[in-house]
Amino acid sequence: MGAIPTFDTAPLDSALAASLLDWWHDAGVDLLVEDAPRDWMAEPVQPVTFAPTPLTPAAPRTAAPVMAPAPTLLPDTLAAFLEWRLSDAAPEASWDGVSLTATGPADAALMVLVDCPDRDDGEAGQILSGAPGRLFDRMLAAIGQSRDTVHLASVCARRPLAGRTPADLETRLADIARHHVGLIRPRGLLLLGNAASRAVLGTELTSARGHLHAVDHKNGKSQAIASFHPRFLIEKPMAKAESWKDLQLLIGELAK
Fold this sequence. Notes:
alpha/beta, 34% helix, Uracil-DNA_glycosylase-like
């Protein structure tokens, strides 16, 4: 065996190649060849030193103030807000698909917020259609509510390409969702799914579940409960018992 390691000449897979490049980069190698040839046998040239020349300090310059962009004001009436959510000014206007507006009474005691429309909701023309919608209707009936009595909305007016709220728009869409809650001023707020929980509570669903949260807004305060989205309950029926516990907390709040 020789002292110099040998490598298989077969092509390296991308992960191994990236690992080797990272190793050389960490070792300080940042180029393969130089532009000009170098005489490696020549004697090193001693550097020439110069006496420092005193510099006259330049007059201080006052930096121009940086102007922060003015925040986009959201409509302060529900009718104008819902119209704006469907306009080209909304953050999701450039996404594929159609925008779906919120439904239900403006003075509803219960507001329900989900993450985004499902794939079939655009054709149906409403948020929560198909099998998730039928399960949602049964959940509402179990607490004495219906689509006619609740205000139903989504964090995203259109469905994102990957089905998840884009990270670069998450903060903006969360501000819009909380503004929407303030316009409705519901006594109870049901947040279905992780994206809805993050938008309003700033907390992951796994941590938010199981207790009420006071949500302050410019028009007062609402009590929120976070629970599983109906599409999750269809995939994981065992979670329905936990969902029912969440709904019971909500029932107690609405009964006050």
